[in-house]
Amino acid sequence: MRLDAGCELEFEILEPTPMLLMLRPRSGEGQWVEAERYALQPRVPASEYADAWGNLCQRIVARPGRLHISTQVRVDTDDTIALAPGAPRTPVDQLPVEVIGFLLASRYAESDALADQARDVTAGATPGYDQVEAIRAWIHRSFEYRYGVSNESTSARDTIRMRKGVCRDFAHVGIALTRALGIPARYVAGYLHELEPMDLHAWFEAYVDGRWYTFDATQAGPRGGRVIIGYGRDALDVALATPFGDTKLDNMQAWVRAVPEAAG
Amino acid sequence: MRLDAGCELEFEILEPTPMLLMLRPRSGEGQWVEAERYALQPRVPASEYADAWGNLCQRIVARPGRLHISTQVRVDTDDTIALAPGAPRTPVDQLPVEVIGFLLASRYAESDALADQARDVTAGATPGYDQVEAIRAWIHRSFEYRYGVSNESTSARDTIRMRKGVCRDFAHVGIALTRALGIPARYVAGYLHELEPMDLHAWFEAYVDGRWYTFDATQAGPRGGRVIIGYGRDALDVALATPFGDTKLDNMQAWVRAVPEAAG
Amino acid sequence: MRLDAGCELEFEILEPTPMLLMLRPRSGEGQWVEAERYALQPRVPASEYADAWGNLCQRIVARPGRLHISTQVRVDTDDTIALAPGAPRTPVDQLPVEVIGFLLASRYAESDALADQARDVTAGATPGYDQVEAIRAWIHRSFEYRYGVSNESTSARDTIRMRKGVCRDFAHVGIALTRALGIPARYVAGYLHELEPMDLHAWFEAYVDGRWYTFDATQAGPRGGRVIIGYGRDALDVALATPFGDTKLDNMQAWVRAVPEAAG
Amino acid sequence: MRLDAGCELEFEILEPTPMLLMLRPRSGEGQWVEAERYALQPRVPASEYADAWGNLCQRIVARPGRLHISTQVRVDTDDTIALAPGAPRTPVDQLPVEVIGFLLASRYAESDALADQARDVTAGATPGYDQVEAIRAWIHRSFEYRYGVSNESTSARDTIRMRKGVCRDFAHVGIALTRALGIPARYVAGYLHELEPMDLHAWFEAYVDGRWYTFDATQAGPRGGRVIIGYGRDALDVALATPFGDTKLDNMQAWVRAVPEAAG
Lengths: 264, 264, 264, 264
Prior knowledge:
With about 260 residues, chain A is an alpha+beta fold. In chain A, about 15% of the residues lie in helices and about 40% in strands.
């Protein structure tokens, strides 16, 4: 499946403001970037680096006035996501080194405090994929998707108390409970085709039986058509824009469109 | 200054338990490992890797029964720590890439929620080193060092409310307030010569004027004689032992001794 | 200066052939990727990773038949390159860790065997930038730019013997002699605006006085307008296409154009 | 098998000389460092870093006069090496990213020029482990182990011409021919228990069927009891001592001893 996706951000900048951005999707397993565009208006010097998780990050100093950021990507991605009912948990001592960091608690995923909850939610499930799917289904079933109840400091525990939140919160709950079972989980920021309402999106992946699998507690069933912007331990590692100064985000819009068959 | 330092951990293991350990100090800037010993009793297969911050981590599967871990290191380290009154803040856009990750909030250091607090505490201080020293002095002056009031889930905000805690909590407050000013800060786990009472220790470093400086809010004044075990964003990244299973830590002891002049 | 650059490669593939490609320029210091396109015809599954030097590498299995690769990039880059006459050599013990690897001999740059040559060529020059410029000027003055005299196995020593070669060979000589003086040097593959005749290009960078400087022995004087595809110790690390099987490269074309002022 | 191993190096230093050292073995898969000692006499400031392959490297500035380096390690290592007759070649497109770099030619292993030779030597062998074993056996059978015929610039091609050399040369031939078959190979520097005559040693590993296997063309049959100091593409990446200045290596000695059963 080929998708065009992109987002527009409008900032009001009140003073010269250093900013970190994470808005350039990379090709990876299951995602191939065919074309890409990244525009800053006004044009300012920008540099780029890869963070500890391999995400491409951009660094600018925004000038006072309006800053318009527009990024766009054409990606070849999977129509469906892989499913693996019954796939076993990978024992901790056999996890690849680069996966181990996703096993521990993080800012928004207090897995250490959620062992009982995780056991309850997954009671009866085979250790591994089925446990994670039980977690995902439980969140989807028991939580209300609602804007405005959570904010930047809302963590998995907060969301479990409230039983409501947005994609970011659902992902944090999924991650925290999955890790509480000794299964690595990571946060994914990206786009989802035909998401309703359209917006930037977040979900999570769990590492079972030797590879990462996709889980999205906001959706009723498995769905492909995903464009990945970045990976991290939780939303902290994948902030799309981090200003260090007095700024105001006036507008943010995301979009995803299927590429017509005929397109080159 | 040459120091011998070490620690002993005794676990009761109830089932075969994968464990992650971070108990092997590395040579680095300002610390040279002359000799080192790492013993597991009973002996079990162990492997080692470097994590995202360069710390050496060990992986074992502990067998049911007693597990005794004993590590020891002889290090050549600085007698004093560098001070830099008046040293300016490094602008965010000039920070080295590997330092940027230490600028953002983390699990125990909710810097995003502490901007006002940080401004209050550092009112009147020159941006940079002097701000961090003001934070350090404020913690030392206003907080009570007390065991038993904090636990694994206590964060900088919790500690600021309570005004008491241990070295780990003091470090988290220092880190959170420092980052809230746009200054990178990292957590350091290690040993301190003549610490009273002797224990494993934690402090923090701040990046100003192009390098890292050491700050320790538990101490009245600057002190050298430090042996570093690991660096991280906060205590989460530098857990000395993480069991994945049913275990009990029965005993933990740390010690530091100056190496006699004559020693080879 | 904004440039559009790109290349076209046509392969004849005789059997299913794994290939490594390095054809996706990255934003970095002094180069900002505004837009980019990477097309494989026929479309085949492709994945991407960053190598030890941070270059983005692509991996495919080409199918028997024709394979057409077309990449294109719009870059904001410097009009001129930085010059630093008199800038001193950075002492080896003060080099950043990530630079040290560029100090040692490599496949095509046998610096260990060229100490005398390096001393001769730079006699009288101030240690540092001026030495490297003396090397660059000597190559430009003494070597003939000629196609067909060198091949994949030609090294700096070979080229010094022959006194002729292409951009790749000139860069290897520059790198080998620079390293022979204890100055780190790296190979750069990329595009140069208004290169005559137009082709993919290669030059080198040397690390003096705390940063990398650009040197191009194929040119009479300093020139900006460069688009960087990859960095490496020598050409071995920056091969644009490496097939593992029976293939034939039928055609390769590169182009660079200035972006009209009015373009968005 | 527990081994004590170590080496002594004596340099005569004529001027203040920056040096890179690689003399600190690390724990890894199949090797656990129980204790370790690293002494520089006279004591000079030293720092340490991990290179691109994960090896620990030390950096000093040696002072004029004598420099004595003495390192020692106690390691728990395998008694035997794994064998895998018939294990298949891992297709290039399925190699882990970190292995790919070991597939390409390098300074002393001109694999691109040795395809025919590799085919000849492995004629009739099953693609994978058996090919590498055929290469290893061919070297052992056809090459004479002799000191003094090779030097720092001797490459695999040179050694194939001469049919003689030392462990380093044998390893380079093995690596070059293995890579010429599209099988990743890496150079290992280390110690071998009961090596005759005792010295620092080198051998190679090949990546087949999803993991690295050990091959040593200097030995008649498979032998364990190995202590690994470092990995690299070839000897260039694993130089134990690299002085940048006027020095003389007066003496070098290596030793390996089995640890008595009773030792703690």
